[in-house]
Amino acid sequence: MIKSSSKNNSKPVLELKNITKSYITGTNSFTALNNVSLKIFPGEFVSITGPSGSGKSTLMHIVGLLDNPTSGEVLLNGRDISKLKEHQLAQIRNVTLGFVFQQFNLLAKTSSLENVLLPLLYSDVPKKNRHQIGVDLLTKVGLQDKMVNTPAQLSGGQQQRVAIARALVNNPQIILADEPTGNLDSKSGVEIMNFFHQLNEKEGRTIVFVTHDMELANQANRTIIIKDGKVTEEK
Amino acid sequence: MLKPSLNDLLKSSFKSILKNKSRTILTSLGIIIGVTSVILLTSIGNGLKNYVTDQFETLGANSVFVSPGKIFNDNGGFSSSSMGSMVLTFTQKDYNLLRRKLKNVEIMPVNATYVDIKSNYDIKKGIEIDGTNEEYGKNNNIVTSKGSGRWFTNEENSKKAPVIVLGYKVAQTLFPKSEAVGKKVIIKGKTFKVIGVADQKGSSFGGPSVDDTVYAPFSVVSDLSGKEDINMFSVKSPNKDSIESTKKEITKIFLEKYDKDAFSVFDSSQLLSSINSIINVLTIALTGIAAISLVVGGVGIMNIMLVSVTERTREIGLRKAIGAYPRAILIQFLIEAVILSCFGGFVGVVLGSLGTLAISNFFPAKVTISSVVVAFGVSSAVGIIFGVAPARKASKLSPIEALRYE
């Protein structure tokens, strides 16, 4: 098990160096992120928080390789990914990162199992192994009896668990969650957070999540607070 | 290696298409109509060509025809100027000239007129009666079936014997209940003895067929029409290789007497290729018109694929976020477009074939493998061409904006 205290004697899995992201709409320019630098170490459980419009979502998109910074470097395992082509970024998103969204983003009219297996379509995992991987993961999130159900037949908490199983399917280095409990009732929200804790503590998985809820953010080992596009506090 | 595999792509494409069954059918309708009409028209054109070829084979092999007037133009098509308006007819002198100068060939003069024929049962009006000789019946295999009598002889010709060979249909009309051979018919008040019934040559559409023609000795028909003129010579060449030399010889003989536009010397293959070239042009023109609906169908597919890309923007965003590279998205949407149009193509081929089958009851239509292959090829090409724009649009969506799309 890797504790957050070990961060000083290991290399960061993800590092942002002087990231700036600005949008130009017409004649107005708006800076969403202003010279942000941060490091995420293996095995960390990190929350990113801040008021709405602070730039935390933009930060998440850049960390998740879904968006390019205007300037600055993104290093993944020490490798600068800013010059990679779209298909290479796609491969990193597929293999190295696992996403969990506020809206779950499951395919409608598609079974839980198929939703979990979706990222494997774009991976090198042999076909014959795929089914078992999906079954194992759904069992792990406690949905072994909901494999054939479609999202419409599941509760919000169950849908988010399917989404977590999907994020884990390629055994990623980092799990990125954007307001993972934002669309859930408080009981389901607690369940999901507990599940993240388990993944971090028992399996040593690196988890980064964004939330506007300070209380939730404080459950992480480390909290990064963003305000007006700048990291104002780390604790 | 393609990721996802083609198999996975096909599976997910079929799935998304089947989610919207009625939309799929409506979208494919344009292609269905286009392919059905292309198949039907090529089948009809092809059947027509086969039919004409068959009919020409009944004209007899190794035959050279000499006819008054200019039948072919310089390009091998039919001449427009003198078709039908036969200014000149040949005479007995021409016949004698050919007989004297041509060796190793059989010359058959044909003198045609139209008459009404009466039997005890019925009357047939406006029947073509061909006056000719013994060789004509033999070379064209007109009477071969057992029990259907015989063709007339040259002796009967010179004796002006009142004998007649009835076409198959004429015999059936005039003698519906009994054997025609041996019975009597009356033409222009004269009594003729039926000595033979021609073999059935097959159905015809529209125009008269040889089944509706009757034959009598040349001298007899001359008496009926009151003219000694010869409408056409049929010349039997000894073999296939000598057809060209026979044609040249006849042309040489007649050029001494007539202007070059006053007569035509041709063989059945020439006539056949002229007719076939007309049928080909017609078929291509009609198929071209039908193909326009394939383009319209393609636009329909493009339209619905653009709608589908918009509807599935979030799905595209998600797929990209979890690792779909742009080309995987492009191929997925392209395959969906191709499946839609190939489905249309398949249904079109089935409907076109069924339609051809129905038509073939009264018209000689036949589906060709090549038309099926072309129709299928064209419809998948339509899918690719009209699928590219929506698929590109999908593959270029930004994942974040796509995920935010409501």
Q: How would you describe this structure to a colleague?
A:
The complex is a heterodimer of chains A (235) and B (406). Chain A is α/β, with parallel strands linked by helices and 235 residues long. Chain A has helices at 56-63, 86-95, 112-117, 127-140, 156-168, 186-203, 214-217; strands at 14-25, 28-40, 45-49, 71-76, 79-80, 97-100, 174-178, 206-211, 222-227, 230-234. Chain A has a 6-stranded mixed sheet, with helices on both faces. A 4-stranded antiparallel sheet of chain A has the order 2-1-4-5, with helices on one face. In chain A, helix 4 (127-140) crosses helix 5 and helix 5 runs parallel beside helix 6. Chain A is globular. Mean pLDDT of chain A is 90; it is low at 1-7. Chain B has 406 residues and is α+β, with helices and mostly antiparallel strands. Chain B folds into 2 domains: 6-54 and 275-404, no CATH class; 109-230, no CATH class. Helix content of chain B is 54%, strand content 15%. Chain B contains 13 helices and 9 strands. Chain B has helices spanning 6-18, 21-57, 92-101, 134-139, 154-158, 168-174, 218-225, 243-255, 268-311, 313-321, 326-359, 369-395, 399-404; strands spanning 63-68, 106-118, 123-132, 163-166, 184-187, 190-197, 214-217, 232-236, 263-267. In chain B, strands 1, 2, 3, 4, 5, 6, 7, 8 and 9 form a 9-stranded mixed sheet that branches. In chain B, helix 11 (326-359) packs antiparallel against helix 12. Chain B is elongated, with a radius of gyration of 32 Å. Chain B starts with 5 loop residues before the first helix and ends with a helix. The model of chain B is unreliable at 82-86 (pLDDT under 50). The A-B interface holds A 61, 64, 66-67, 86-87, 90-91, 93-95, 99, 101, 103, 105, 107, 109-110, 118-119, 121-124, 127, 166, 170 and B 1, 3-5, 8, 12, 15, 19, 314-315, 317-328, 398-400, 403.
